[in-house]
Amino acid sequence: MQEKLGGIFGQRVNHYALVIALTMASAESSRAVAFLLPNQDPEAIGRGDAFAATADDPAAIYYNPAGITQLQGIQASVGLYGISAHTSYSSSSGSANTDADPQFVPQIYAVDTLKSVPISIGLGVYVPYGLGVNWGNPPFSNVAQNGKLEYFTANPVVAWKICKMLSVAAGPTFNYSEATFQNAPFGGEEVHFHGDDWAPGYTFGIMFQPHPMWSFGVDYRSETSMNYSGKFNGVGVVNSSVETSAKINFPRTALGGVSFRPTPDWNLEFDLSWTQWSKINTLTFQHSPFGVPVSLTLDYRDSFIYDFGVTRQLGKGYYASVGYIYSEESNPNANYNPVDPDANLHLGNFGFGHRGEHLDWAIAYQFAYNGGRTVTGDSNASADGTYKTFNNAVNASVTVKF
Predict the structure, then answer these.
(1) E strands within 187-223?
(2) Torsion angle defined by CA atoms of residues 9, 13, 15 and 20, in that order, rounded to the nearest 10 degrees
């Protein structure tokens, strides 16, 4: 009898650990690599985010801060990224769809290139991770229902133009995050959680332009660690309100790009980025509604994003871009959770804009597609099935030059 009760108790703890961990450590975005949100500027998005070796607008603060040395005077940019993220699920146990209502993410950048010294300074405020997913009441409701991750970054940078060909830049990041979820992981019982934390990090970039036709860019973003402190509010559990905390390591990323400009009217670029998702392995909550710590093995894997884009100058300041992205999945089958409906994605990108003497504007459209990822052998068998993704996103920005 004691063994039976112990087994039920352990099963409850494991269900709570799974839901809590993956909801906090996951949120759907338009890219496959878990909860990364690298779409931070319409000019870059229009060319498939292949921008690290071009980086010639204020959003370079995110893509490659060394690029801001190319800008003149003071420039400020405001943008808004809107995404409708949709994933469908089907299996012998039933079907479900995520809520496809639009979600919006802002971006703000400001740059000042000093006149007396070869120095540029800048500040970016953006959202590098996040968004949310809501399955409603799916067949796997004991594993996943809905959750939201918010992650805000303020990033001051200083860039130095060492010589005509070479620029370098670096700066700290100040990051604040909140995680919220609601779920019914066992027997109809509900758990609600809200927690937050802040953490420092840093970024640096290099831009090398040995010839007017060729440019090379490197960007690096450090790991950050969030120790979320919050409260469980449970319905139908032993303790209805429990203070808890859990640490999540947000991964480091490294990116390299090469731009080829055969004529002043054409720019072709290829970027390759790596994200160290393997830093997300085991997650432990120090307290639970059952009075004991709960742990879960996630074992995400490192992954790559391949970006390719082309921009054509149309005359009188107008330009058009197209791009393609292939993004590798990071969430393995063995620990798959629908709160992070991760998959290998193909992304198409289109952009249009204008650069003027005092005002620039740009708009871009992006879609993400995966025809079906079949999950089998998951540690939570109720989540086994086929997941299909089709997302739509639009980004627009305005840049004012002083």
Answers:
(1) 189-211, 214-221
(2) 160
Q: pLDDT tens digits for 327-383?
A: 998 877 777 777 777 789 999 999 999 999 999 999 999 999 998 888 887 666 677
Decide if 108 contacts 143 (C-beta within 8 A): no
CA 61 – CA 171 distance, rounded (Å): 9
Taking the C-alpha atoms of residue 233 and residue 213, their distance in angstroms, rounded to an integer, is 59
CA Rg value for the chain: 22
Structure tokens at 339: 């709160």
Backbone angles phi, psi at 123, to 5 degrees: -145, 130
* φ, ψ at 114 (rounded to 5°): -70, 150
Helix/strand/coil for 79: strand
Q: Name the CA dihedral angle for 373, 377, 379, 383, rounded to a multiple of 10 degrees.
A: 40
Residues 358, 360: Cα–Cα separation, whole Å = 7
Place of tokens 């997300």: 280
Instruction: Read off the tokens for 314.
Output: 């149309």
Rounded-to-integer distance, Cα 163 and Cα 172, Å: 24
For 402, the 3-state DSSP assignment is: coil
Whether the Cβ atoms of residue 191 and residue 180 lie closer than 8 Å to each other: no
Longest dimension (CA), the chain: 81
Give the pair of three-digit tokens for residue 255: 């990116």
User: In this structure, are residues 280 and 251 in contact, taking their beta carbons and an 8 Å threshold?
Assistant: yes
Whether the Cβ atoms of residue 53 and residue 217 lie closer than 8 Å to each other: yes
Collapsed DSSP state (helix, strand, coil) of residue 14:
helix
Domains in the chain: boundaries: 2-401
Q: Average of pLDDT values for 52-68?
A: 97
- Across 72-97, b (16+ Cβ under 10 Å) vs e yields eeebbbbbebebbbbbbbbbeeeebe
pLDDT at site 58: 97
| Token code pair at residue 266 | 């054409």
Per-residue pLDDT at 278 exceeds 90: no
Written out in words, the top-level CATH class of the domain with range 2-401 is mainly beta
Q: Which of 148, 207, 201, 126 is closest to 395 using CA atoms?
A: 126
Cβ atoms of residues 276 and 308 within 8 Å: no
Helix (H/G/I), strand (E/B), else coil: 273: strand
